[in-house]
Design a protein that fits this description.
Layout: E1 7-11, H1 16-27, E2 31-36, H2 44-55, E3 64-68, H3 74-86, E4 91-96, H4 103-108, H5 110-130, E5 135-141, H6 164-182, E6 188-194, E7 196-198, H7 217-225, E8 232-235, E9 247-248, E10 250-252, H8 253-269, E11 273-279, E12 285-286, H9 287-298, E13 304-307, E14 316-317, H10 322-328, H11 336-349
Parallel strand pairs: 1-2, 1-4, 2-3, 4-5, 5-6, 6-11, 7-10, 8-13, 9-14
Antiparallel strand pairs: 9-12
Helix pairs in contact: 1-2, 1-8, 3-5, 5-6, 9-11
The structure holds nicotinamide-adenine-dinucleotide and uridine-5'-diphosphate-4-deoxy-4-fluoro-alpha-D-galactose.
The site of nicotinamide-adenine-dinucleotide (NAD) has 29 residues, from α1, α5, β5 and β7.
Length: 354
């Protein structure tokens, strides 16, 4: 099916992942409505997305409409859908990324996480139903798997989330399962279970720009590299891994962005279904290895100290991505060196973020 000029709603569209996903869909010719409360991002990213597309020869300016708003505001969501209907450009699909993502904060403010992530998602699903919008790609997380015995995690692994954040993601997936049944299996739903997205668009024009000090490893390394933080804390050197530090499946943000496009096209072109997909490379990298590679690729020094293990962490979390590759024909192309190089390019250009 030719989807060019379809209008999609991207919630969380100014965030780290959202900005790269917006860029990807605009480049593919979609009209994009990006909705974000800006609780963890800046709307300045929209200008950079436009400039980036123009620099690549795409006439996308005008195809990106930004709405500042909260997904917990159902009336606002209705207005967004209605406005598009009036313009004869109805929202045909939703890429739902808006959410709070700090594991630590989710333990300190559990109710905020349930309210924001789960109540906000229920609003989206309700308004989609009102407007007969049946396709959704949801940003789920590998964190729903929790502690696994398997070196490579498959999609049929039992959910064992270890913190409120992970529980909200697992719950939203369960709600989507029920909605699928309620719709007599007429909806098109894809849960993308991201592993650890890092890096930036290779131009360095867009990248991760959180409003507070990052808690994730890679954006923290970037801040150490540019001098905004003194040193990196490595949480644990006694994990049961080859060098004692935690192992994760880091995936380049551009490969991750592409998976949203491929998932939506797959949903549109196939029978209604609910599709759960691991979005990772299948390759594990330890914290220490990531630091070493970052230093060698970018010719810099990342001072670090070992600290106690972080509460709620697991030792290893790596995807079995064979199902995603098979179903979507998706191939993560960029390696860990590319992730380090592109992330640093972004940080060198915008050391203080947007
Ligand atoms: P991010 O914080 O950069 O982006 C999330 C965006 O959602 C932000 O721009 C924020 O302002 C917005 N937002 C939050 N609550 C909102 C609300 N109630 N209404 C409207 N906008 C709201 O984070 P990200 O890394 O881009 O993550 C995007 C999604 O992917 C999140 O749902 C996150 O849980 C999920 N995810 C991220 C990772 C990761 O490692 N980055 C891994 C797995 C899943
Ligand atoms: N780590 C450090 N120092 C830091 C930050 C992290 O040593 O300052 C270590 C952690 O202990 C872990 C590894 O780096 O071993 C990765 O930690 P991240 O915080 O970057 O990522 P997580 O794997 O803990 O979680 C991330 C996202 C979740 C998502 C999950 C999916 O934060 O939202 O990946 O796998 F669900």
């Amino acid at each position: 099916m030719d989807c060019e000029k379809d209008t999609i709603l991207i919630t969380g569209g100014t965030g780290f992942i959202g900005s790269h996903v917006c860029y990807f869909f605009l480049k593919k010719g979609f009209n994009v409505v990006s909705l974000d409360s800006l609780v963890n991002s800046s709307k300045k990213v929209n200008k950079n997305i436009d400039n980036l597309l123009l620099s690549e020869g795409y006439e996308a300016t005008g195809n990106l409409k930004f709405v500042k708003g909260d997904i917990r505001n159902k009336d606002l969501l209705r207005c967004v859908f209605n406005d598009q209907l009036k313009k004869n450009k109805p929202i045909s699909s939703v890429i739902h990324l808006a959410g709070l993502k700090s594991v630590k904060q989710s333990k300190l403010n559990a109710l905020d996480y349930w309210s924001n992530n789960v109540c906000g998602s229920i609003n989206i699903f309700n308004v989609m139903k009102e407007f007969k919008c049946n396709s959704i790609v949801f940003s789920s997380s590998a964190t729903i798997y929790g502690i696994s015995e398997n070196p490579l995690i498959k999609e049929n692994e039992e959910f064992k989330p270890q913190n409120p954040y992970g529980k909200t993601k697992a719950t939203i997936e369960k709600i989507l399962e029920d909605i699928f049944e309620e719709s007599y299996k007429s909806m098109r739903i894809s849960n993308l279970r991201y592993f650890n997205p890092i890096g930036a668009h290779p131009s360095g024009m867009i990248g991760e720009s959180p409003n507070t000090t990052p808690e994730n490893l890679f954006p923290y390394i970037l801040q150490v590299a540019c001098g905004r933080q003194k040193e990196l804390n490595i949480y644990g050197n006694n994990w049961p891994t080859h060098d004692g530090t935690g192992v994760r499946d880091y995936i380049h943000i551009m490969d991750l962005a592409e998976s949203h496009y491929l998932a939506l096209i797959h949903l549109i072109n196939n029978k209604p279904q609910i599709l759960n997909l691991n979005i990772g490379t299948g390759i594990g990298t330890s914290v220490k290895e990531l630091v070493n590679i970052f230093e060698s690729v970018n010719k810099c020094n990342i001072p670090f100290v070992y600290k106690d293990r972080r509460d709620g962490d697991v030792s290893i979390c790596v995807a079995d991505n064979s199902y995603s590759k098979k179903v979507l024909g998706w191939i993560p192309r960029r390696n860990i060196q590319d992730m380090c190089k592109d992330g640093w390019k972004w940080m060198s250009k915008f050391p203080n973020g947007f």
